[in-house]
Amino acid sequence: MSDINHSSQQKRLKKRVFKKIDNDEWSIEELAQSIINGDRKALASGITLVESRANKHRKKAAQLIQLLLPNTGKSIRIGITGVPGAGKSTWIEAFGKKLVQEDHKIAVLAIDPSSSLSGGSILGDKTRMEELSHHQNVFIRPSPTAGTLGGVHRMTRETILLCEAASYDIILVETVGVGQSEVMVRGMVDFFLLLALTGGGDELQGMKKGIMELVDAIVINKADGDNKVRATKARNEYRQLLHYLQPATKGWQTKAITCSAIKGEGIVEIWELIERFIEEISESGVMEDRRKSQSLDWMKQMIHDRLFDEFMNIDGRKEELRRLKEGVIVGEVSPAEAVETLFTP
Amino acid sequence: MSDINHSSQQKRLKKRVFKKIDNDEWSIEELAQSIINGDRKALASGITLVESRANKHRKKAAQLIQLLLPNTGKSIRIGITGVPGAGKSTWIEAFGKKLVQEDHKIAVLAIDPSSSLSGGSILGDKTRMEELSHHQNVFIRPSPTAGTLGGVHRMTRETILLCEAASYDIILVETVGVGQSEVMVRGMVDFFLLLALTGGGDELQGMKKGIMELVDAIVINKADGDNKVRATKARNEYRQLLHYLQPATKGWQTKAITCSAIKGEGIVEIWELIERFIEEISESGVMEDRRKSQSLDWMKQMIHDRLFDEFMNIDGRKEELRRLKEGVIVGEVSPAEAVETLFTP
């Protein structure tokens, strides 16, 4: 199945879902119940609904989430980031297989269009997580392709809730770290993991600004064969560095460890580490505090986005803003004056 | 003069300024011209105007800034941060004295109410920057005390422009690093300097998250007497650490250096460093790019703040938001549903 076929198939599915929902053939209550019952098609349709940017769908999406709310919040939410080439797909495949062996139901989501999940290949015959994607207890959903990163962020947060309502008890959120995406992922997960490259100082230097202070563990992948010595060296360098940096989670010293996803080595240890993390922060109350403040931050963000969307929706506003921005750039208009102009009827 | 007297004196001054402006006895054009002419009282009054939170003053403040705009942008804007006890006041005193000796006109502003400039002591008889504050080419303004940090941020940005119009060619913006204040300072200065404590690993560990990746230089103060060896050791540790972190400014490796403000040692070197920095980033175009994107970010921030202010200004909105937040915290209402409720008339 080619990417193009996959994409047009997606579009047809979307059309069918929206037709049913818009004509009230499929009530939101029914949809919610089917999701709770574990119907994968219903889950996929629900996600399609929350990904819609149409005004009429937003209300229904909120209604759906509200109905599912009592069934949410019980999963472990894990974020995974790492540059392309760090081996994220292979790592998620190895990690996911370990989890399904232990009877977990896992959902894999992506937060940006350029993640390893995206581009349609995931459902094609050459998927990068082949074994995992065929497992009945695994649900894989690539990133929504439409909209800004902020919009993708909102959709992914809501998709997490839908997956939880469908009894997925471990949610993996993947990002390659475009723009502010790591900050967004940090704002929606319990445990955040950086998959790093092996190697010396130069590779550490290439790391994104502030990323080490956002994550709970740095996992140096590909610690196998000739690479093992370098990986261990890198791990020690990270440990030394982490000693000086503030941890992302109160009461938890960020860890640096090695693993080999391809050989399946160190995967069990990472899962044990995450379980210990969840236990510790649940006991200390940090987990509850984090989830609460994540919800409030999310709410605040949505209010700001909505206000800005409505403001920009006025006829001629975009053109006016563009013109004023140009004035600000060339130094003819002060930002204060530009804002006054925008707000003067 | 006690703090209380100072404060009531400030209030009287404010009242007088507003009376004149509100009654159009003092036109914005006259005020602008007096600021450009270097009239210190006019400058102080102009700052009082931009610090006002009244709606009627916002329009006039924007008008004032617009009039001054052609005379702005020509200073070097330097941010200074450091925990209380790092010796910021002494350092600014030493640095400022060096600059006025070279015939610079300097303005010292603070971004948060708890900075060393604040609390009224600055204009009292026991000021911490005694010599500096009496110099004719120095203008010191404590932080505006009213409003949120975001509001203080806006006011400080506009105050920078007013000082530039009054021919101050070096602007120092001080913060003790409350909340997001360092990010705000980074967004309004060209060069950002962290004044750090001497000492070993433990003190480095106490450093605020991400701060090292925001600054262009880490200055270890109090490198004198018994402390000199420890300061040098700390500097070397910082250098090692900085090697792994991404620099705040493209093309400029963040520096770590020692100085002794109290003995006046290393102050000249810091000024030379800043001059070199400005020269290099001006040539590379990074300076222009930074200033442009700072203005656009500022404009965007103001639009968002304004929209949120207007939204919250509706009768009963605050109470409604508080109630919805509680619902979100206890898990009864989803953030999405809460936002829908807020936006449903």
Topology, element by element:
Two copies of one chain form a homodimer.
Chain A (H helix, E strand, L loop, with lengths): L2 H20 L5 H9 L3 H12 L3 H14 L7 E6 L6 H14 L4 E5 L19 H4 L4 E4 L7 H17 L4 E6 L5 H6 L4 E6 L4 H5 L11 E4 L7 H15 L12 E4 L8 H18 L1 H27 L4 H14 L4 H9 L2
Parallel strand pairs in A: 1-4, 1-5, 2-3, 2-4, 5-6, 6-7
Helix pairs in contact in A: 2-3, 2-4, 3-7
Family (chains A, B): Belongs to the SIMIBI class G3E GTPase family. ArgK/MeaB subfamily.
Keywords (chains A, B): Hydrolase
Pfam families (chains A, B): MeaB
Structure report:
Chains A, B: One of its GO terms (molecular function) is hydrolase activity. Chains A, B: InterPro entries: GTPase_ArgK, P-loop_NTPase. Chains A, B: Keywords: Hydrolase. Chains A, B: This is Methylmalonyl Co-A mutase-associated GTPase MeaB. 2 copies of one chain form a homodimer. Chain A has 3 domains: 1-71, Single alpha-helices involved in coiled-coils or other helix-helix interfaces, CATH 1.20.5.170; 72-282, P-loop containing nucleotide triphosphate hydrolases (Rossmann fold), CATH 3.40.50.300; 292-343, Helix Hairpins (Orthogonal Bundle), CATH 1.10.287. By secondary structure, chain A is of the alpha/beta class. Helix content of chain A is 53%, strand content 10%. Residues 1-5 and 119-126 of chain A have low confidence and may be disordered. In chain A, helix 2 crosses helix 3, helix 2 crosses helix 4 (55-68) and helix 3 packs antiparallel against helix 7. Chain A has helices at residues 3-22, 28-36, 40-51, 55-68, 88-101, 130-133, 149-165, 181-186, 201-205, 228-242, 267-284, 286-312, 317-330, 335-343, and strands at residues 76-81, 106-110, 138-141, 170-175, 191-196, 217-220, 255-258. At the A-B interface, helix 4, helix 9, helix 12, helix 13 and helix 14 of A face helix 4, helix 9, helix 12, helix 13 and helix 14 of B.
